[in-house]
Hints:
The structure holds two protein chains of two kinds. Chain A is of the alpha/beta class. Chain A is built from four helices and five strands. The relative contact order of chain A is 0.18. Chain B is of the alpha+beta class. In chain B, a hairpin with a 4-residue loop joins strand 1 and strand 2 (69-76). In chain B, helix 1 packs antiparallel against helix 2 (38-53). Chain B is elongated. Chain A binds chain B through residues 25-27, 29-30, 33, 58-64, 66-68, 70-71, 74, 87, 90-91, 94-97, 99-100, and chain B through 13, 16-17, 20, 23-24, 27-28, 31, 44, 47-56, 75, 77-82, 149-153.
Amino acid sequence: MNKDIQLSISQKDDVSILNIKGDVTSISGETIEDAYQKVSTAGAKKILLYFDKDGYINSGGIAILIGIASESRKKEQKIRITGLSPHFQKIFDMVGLTKYTEIFPSEELALKDF
Amino acid sequence: MEDEVKEAKHSQRELERRIFHLKTLYDLGQEIGYLRGTQEITKNLLMMMIGTFGASRGFILLCDVSQGKIEVFTQRGMGRNSPNIFSQTIESGSFREFNEITDALILDESSQVQKKEKFLDLLSSLNIKIWIPFNIDASLRGGIGLGEKLSGDSYTRDDQELLSTMSHQGAVAIESARLDQARIEALEQSKKELEQLNRAKSKALDHLSHELRTPLAVIQGNIRLLKRKIQAQNPPIVREEVFDSLEKNLNRLSDIQQDTDQIIRSYQELEGRRRLEEVDQPPSISPETIHLYPFTEQILENVKKRASHRVIQLHLDGAEDLTLVMDPKILEDILVGLLKNAIENTPDEGMVQVILEQKVQWLQLKVMDFGIGITKENQRRLFEGLFHTLDTELYTSGKPYDFGAGGKGLDLLRIKTYGQRFGFDISVASQRCLHIPTDRDLCPGKISECPHCKTREDCLNSGGSTFCLTFTIAGK
């Protein structure tokens, strides 16, 4: 059973942080897309996707993240990811998402890298 | 040592990849299994495939042979809603070419390229690196193409197998959705045809009913005239009973005509309301809060008077504090109809009981008789109207409330149309008398004259019918 996604947007200096709790699927992923579009429209150039380590991400959700990563290149934005469980860190690496973004073990390290 | 660590890491990664792929198959079932639209399923399938392999792009091509159309679902870059759907009519040559590709292809393999050069030119121009056939049924065939992986890796045989499995899952979901859609369309078509037939039947009945009215009135007038003339002659050349019988049967025909008119009007009103969806239009009724127990008690008293020539016990049981918002005239009409039906099917010395009950959000009014009951076959046709549970040959047109008087069969139909109009349900449960199992077996009409029942209880236990009206209580 999928957990409903909960998303909040916060700002630290010039970094927009999308806090994502719950399971990411092609359906719930729309919420992430909407949030990404919202911060992009507001001019964000640095975006941190902060996942819940207990959350699940299925292939449909990954397709959405690929879309966001691809879009961010066109908009010359930097995307960083944190909060992922070790399993999903490997999956993101396998599907090639790490070629477009970087994964960090903590929020602090991710913010430092921008 | 270093090699061993490397090997272990590789194994671990491979294991996680396979777990991810297995979970993907499960997730795909969850994502598309309950969807009922081909486009929705196709879009979700494409998203899942792109996510599983980390593909830069992808498309699904569906060729509808019956409509001569190819639909292309493409996904590039952003979002689940971005797959653009191009629907175009294709040339017959393209169909042929397209049908030639029946195998999965990995475009890096030069051996395949030589065989399928023509089609591969097209795929290469779209930057497609893997192609999987996607065949739903004989009329809907297609394929799925994915672009290069973001990781830079090539597609493998394992990938091809997984993609084929996902494609089969998608094909099954689409086939199932199409079958469901075909079933729904067939049902809607049948419903339309039935409605048309019903309207035609209603028109014909309406016409007949109107056509009957004038000649009936003329005959009634002429008979009255003739009767007066003949009564004036001494001695009368025709006995008065002949006129009585003529008048009785004419009145009966006239009643049928009026009842039919009433039912047709109810039906037409209901149909009209449905067609125009005039939900807010107030029906021509005067709803009031009815205190059911005293209301039913009063009706029972009236019915007792009308059926005073019968020896039937009428009982009222159940909750005394129930109320219902409804037009009292309509509820009276329904209740009298059900009681009349119950009394006419109960032999003398028998019993009819009315029960008032509340069950959670429903209020039930039951009219229970301990009479001859209704055979299973007749129960199915009971609300059709102009239907008698007795064989036509055995049918007696007695007075109202007589045993086996058999009405015009319209009371129950009228109650059913009321139910459709005012939103209550009518159901029947019946047990045909054990001693007279078919319609041709006769009940003597009096328990003490029954050759099978020694006591009254024997009769009460041998059969009977319960008509139950179920109303939803407002606000619950």
